[in-house]
Specification:
Layout (H helix, E strand, L loop, with lengths): L7 H8 L1 H10 L5 E6 L4 E4 L1 H7 L3 H4 L4 H4 L1 E2 L5 H7 L1 E10 L5 E12 L5 E10 L17 E3 L2 E3 L2 H14 L5 E4 L6 H11 L7 E5 L5 H9 L16 H4 L4 E5 L6 H13 L1 E2 L8 E2 L3 E6 L3 H6 L5 H7 L2 E4 L9 H14 L8 E2 L1 H9 L5 H15 L4 E2 L6 H9 L3 H6 L11 H11 L4 H7 L4 H11 L2
Parallel strand pairs: 9-14, 9-15, 10-11, 11-14, 16-17
Antiparallel strand pairs: 1-2, 1-6, 3-4, 4-5, 5-6, 7-8, 12-13
Helix pairs in contact: 7-8, 14-16, 15-17, 19-20, 20-21
Pfam families: AAA_lid_14, HTH_8, PAS, Sigma54_activat
InterPro entries: AAA+_ATPase (IPR003593), AAA_lid_NorR (IPR058031), Homeodomain-like_sf (IPR009057), HTH_Fis (IPR002197), P-loop_NTPase (IPR027417), PAS (IPR000014), PAS-like_dom_sf (IPR035965), PAS_fold (IPR013767)
GO molecular function: ATP binding; sequence-specific DNA binding
Amino acid sequence: MNTFSPAFKPWIAAVGAEHSLASLAELLDGAAVYAIDAQGRVLYWSQAAERLLGFAAAEALGQLAETVLRCQSCDGPGVLIERGRLDHEPTSVRKADGGSIRVRRSARALFDAQGGFAGAIGVLWPEPEEPDDGEGFGGREAVETFHGLVTRDPAMKQALQIIRNVAETDASVLIRGESGTGKELAARALHEESRRRGRPFLAINCAALSPALLESELFGHVRGAFTGAVKDHAGLFKRADRGTLFLDEVAELPLELQAKLLRALQEKTFLPVGADRPVTVDVRIVAATHRSLREESKAGRFREDLMYRLRVVPVFLPPLRTRREDIPLLLRHFIDRHNLRGQRRILSIEPEAMRALLDYRWPGNIRELQNVVEYAFAVGRGDSLGLGDLPPEFGEAAGEAVPSVARSWSPRPVFGAGLDEAGRLRAALEHTGGKIEDAAALLGMSRATFWRKRKKCGV
């Protein structure tokens, strides 16, 4: 299917292919973009590639790709020519200064009119750096990265595995989770893992529009259907044909539209507003909600038959407050992305700041954590993230949130006074029955600090 307007060629000629590629590369948020010719020589080297790998464009251009893309486990161009594409394959690349960085590599082979290999465009997505031993949340092998979703949490890993499995089918999926847990990101991951990945992924928030506008946006309308309908409008169902349609906050869908959605799901046909001929489509539905559709159905606000049709496969994304081991991981992930932009580089996190971040309840979940990092880069200075770089509520929480376990266990100002550091760690673990988080609270330190000291002392 042609995805370009006839006006595209004149447009690209007017704005320039070089400018278009450079602009697209800038939108990839820290990913290194490069292009090579048929001989494997570098034709394009993005600014992010300069920052990520340490080679200036002047050093990279014209060089063989393996000279500046020094992968530890990359296959030669023959594999790319044979397969045609690489998708988020993990590898490590050596930087100009001799260090290495873990990346996910994607590439597309390009062929000329005669079918000969003409070169390739590639992207290196930097993997989030693992927190050092001071964070103490497990080994690198425990981290899972999946289409931008990063986790160590077993419940989150289970959700990602369900997404992988169900992506091989066309079953409808309902993603449940609080605001900010990454529901749309999970839906996009499902689409990218499915056979529909080359087709459109479209999304709509069902709570954002009035019922009349929502119906028109979903199903389209014909000219003259209502005042202001001066031409036919293809709705999301039509535009997402053979692709995926993501219905966010589906619990807010008005009752009068639920019957129409049910018919579209069951019959794969629908009537645009004002039309008299049905339209047939092949669309996979992925829905999301922060509410229980069962409870909404019991209350009469959601059709039970539609609920069962949407939640053929339910996926639950846990809130960040239950994924404490992911907080340092996600924090480093977002910091690394900002570091690549070059405005400020944060190389370390002060213990007081980490403790405040670990103790926070995160009502806005991952989206809030991302905003906190953006705030820190905007207001802070220097290469260390301190408590003063965090929004005001973190300072208030740090002053108020004295762990209840620490208050109730010991009236002494210092637990284990008279013991050396290793002795205090052992005593705290014995006192709490081996519960690391409680032991850390008892000693008045973050879990991250406790892990670091425990490793240092060999406890």
